[in-house]
Amino acid sequence: MEPKRDLNYKLVDLLNAILDTGVVINADVVITLSGIPLIGINLRAAIAGMATMLGYGLMEAWDENVRKHYSEEIERKGKNQNNDALKADSQPLVSIAPPQKPSNKEN
Amino acid sequence: MKKVNDVKCEESVGEGVYLYCVTNCGAETGFGNIGIGNNRVYAILYKDIGVIVHKCLAKPYKSNKEEEVKSWLFSHLYTIDAAAKKFGAVVPFAFDTIIKGTEDDVRKWLSAEYHKLKNSLERLDGKAEYDIQIFMDTGSTSQEIESTNEEIQRLKMDIETKPKGIAYVLQKKLELIVINETRRKVEEYYKEYSKKICDQVKDSAEEMKAEKTINIEDGKWKDKEMILNLSCLVHNSKIEALGKFLEETNKIHGLSVRFSGPWPPFHFVG
């Protein structure tokens, strides 16, 4: 059996990776990477890259910033609202309609 | 390094650099306008490594159109592939990783992380990511159950002789049995094969990660249920052995295998 370069599959896989990761984090944040401001407005989209950078020990400051941002947000919104409200309020970077029945491209 | 003058940046947003991957490129390289939005892709260098980039505004790509996002993802993937073809190992970035700043900022980052990046490139050398998905054919399993299960055969006979109302209830009962039995069979298969398959794959792969299983609703996978979704980092020399094993697995009654790759090692750089 030979591996196939099934591009349509991989794009869906990458899309899923964007949609699946970092469910809670989804807000405008400017982050710093070794002193370089790095932007990832929807952190869900960049999260795999973030993981890479965390692996390199680059993102401690980012992590702290994100935590700070969220605790501030939650405080600002009061105790009555949950994370869903927070999510709905923030600006998605790649806002894609929920997975719909895909067209039959694979056949 | 040539200066890029053709990109005008809105003052309010500022300059940015979109990152595709880090690679052992060694010398100044242009890839042409293959980037997202047909941007010119080139390498920013430090010593013998470089990061493959295009200049952009310091704001992420954003769209509501799935087709547009897909075309961006395609360009992201295509550019990383082009770099891998030319230079071998790559450390890929996720889609939409943008550094706010100039080429000098990127170079500073490269120099600070040089040793870690170099180690990663060494670890990934000669290897690529392959995805292996094992499906169970739930469609034909259900059919089999429907034609062999004794209780179902009894119900079928009953349905033929009973009045409409009762027949309807029995039909629903029959359908439920098929669903439950199919589920039981899937679990049985999972127990029997998942560990065996994982162990075998591990023999060929340098590294392996089990990902969440997903449902694929189109094409030939429509009536199948994914029971294993593996990402593997595999050395070139092991592909054949892995392919052989997967071919055998594909022959097991009720199981189908999807083997895809080579891909940039997205799952193995975190």
Give a verbal description of the structure.
- The complex is a heterodimer of chains A (107) and B (270).
- With 107 residues, chain A is mainly alpha-helical.
- Helices cover 49% and strands 7% of the residues of chain A.
- Chain A contains four helices and two strands.
- Chain A has a two-stranded antiparallel ribbon with strand order 1-2.
- Chain A starts with 6 loop residues before the first helix and ends in an 18-residue tail after the last helix.
- Mean pLDDT of chain A is 48; it is low at 20-62 and 79-107.
- Chain B is an alpha+beta fold and 270 residues long.
- Chain B has two domains: 2-125, no CATH class; 128-268, Alpha-Beta Plaits.
- Chain B has seven helices and ten strands.
- In chain B, the strands form two sheets. In chain B, strands 1, 2, 3, 4, 5 and 6 form a six-stranded antiparallel sheet that branches. Chain B has a four-stranded antiparallel sheet with strand order 8-9-7-10, with helices on one face.
- In chain B, helix 4 crosses helix 6 (164-204), helix 5 runs antiparallel to helix 6 (164-204) and helix 6 (164-204) packs antiparallel against helix 7 (239-251).
- Mean pLDDT of chain B is 87; it is low at 1-11.
- The interface between A and B is large, with 54 and 59 residues.
**Total beta-strand segments of chain A:** 2
3D shape of chain A: flat
Structural class by sheet pairing and helices of chain B: alpha+beta
Largest interface, counted by CB within 8 Å of the partner chain's CB: A-B, 54 and 59 residues
Calculate the terminal CA-CA distance of chain A, rounded to whole Å. 19 Å
Query: What integer value in Å does the Rg of chain A equal?
Result: 17 Å
Distance between the termini of chain B: 30 Å
CATH topology of the largest domain in chain B: Alpha-Beta Plaits
- Note the run of SSEs of chain A as H and E: HEEHHH
Shape of chain B: elongated
Q: Return the domain count of chain B.
A: 2
Class of the largest domain in chain B in CATH? Answer: Alpha Beta
What's the CATH architecture of the largest domain in chain B? 2-Layer Sandwich
Radius of gyration of chain B: 26 Å
Specify the structural class of chain A: mainly alpha
Q: How many helices of chain A in DSSP terms?
A: 4
Number of helices of chain B: 7
Percentage of residues in strands of chain A: 5-15%
